[in-house]
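[#protein-structures] MJ: dropping TonB-dependent receptor plug domain-containing protein here for a structure pass
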Amino acid sequence: MKALSTRLLPYISVAIVSGYATANTKTPEIMVVTGTKTERALLDTPVRTEVITEVDLERNHARSLEEALRFVPGVQLVDRHGKGGKEVILQGVDGQRVLVLVDGLPTSPTSGTATDVSKIAVAGVKQIEIVKGAVSALYGSNAMGGVINIITKRPFNKSNEFKLTLDAGTYGEHNVRDFPINDGHANLYALYSEDNWYLQFVGDSRNMGGVDLDKGTFNFEDYAGSRSNISLTAGLRTSDTGLVEIKPTLYQEDIYRHYETFSPGVGEKQMSKVEKSTRYDLSVRYEDQFADDVLLSAYYMLM
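AK: finished. structure tokens for TonB-dependent receptor plug domain-containing protein:
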């Protein structure tokens, strides 16, 4: 939820988990890929990389990339100009020059466009890698401020998993709606995996009631409405190091906010800003790491 100077946040969360796995339970060494585009141990990578792990996401109850980045030093979240949502500033560089990726693929269909990090759900995420500073040599001019790379789970370990998470919260007397519960969130993660292929489903839905700090005015301070993310990923190993992956995704948004504006000769006018969008994406990618420093990656994206 959006941080405000005054807030009351009783929090209720329920998670139902069912699964079976044959994987080793030892904590694995953290491997990163963003700084060099090849997989290396975090302690061995020559480019400083910060990592938000899956454990960190669960500990902070992060439901979106915005909430995952909120407590990272050096990361600033600001309102998008004229729009709902948040963009990231890294080391003083605005969001148009901070590249946000999912498994190395861009989240924005156009260059020079700031990514709304409040729209990106973090269900099914293995870790989030953050590289601050210019990495334009690897990623182009869009990465002058840095790169945020969301790494999703790719489990080839003969396992299955089902996880349903429900949570709700309230801002107390600052709820826009006269209802005890202001915000609700539901997330479903399902996985079936064999040694050489897997299917993964992620469904994430948020219902936001908005925040009203002054009930005596028409406007309120945070958007109300709903956001939903749905994705299905199919992965197939073509060799010990090769991978083909197909991933269709759906994003829907229907949010609004009341505000007041002054018009000469008319006075104060009550307005509502409404944002509705539906977006379908399809990505097909092939990866193969031929050596420690040689990675072939090809992808096609339809947005």
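MJ: nice. The chain is about 5% helix and 50% strand.
AK: one more thing. The two ends are 28 Å apart (CA to CA).
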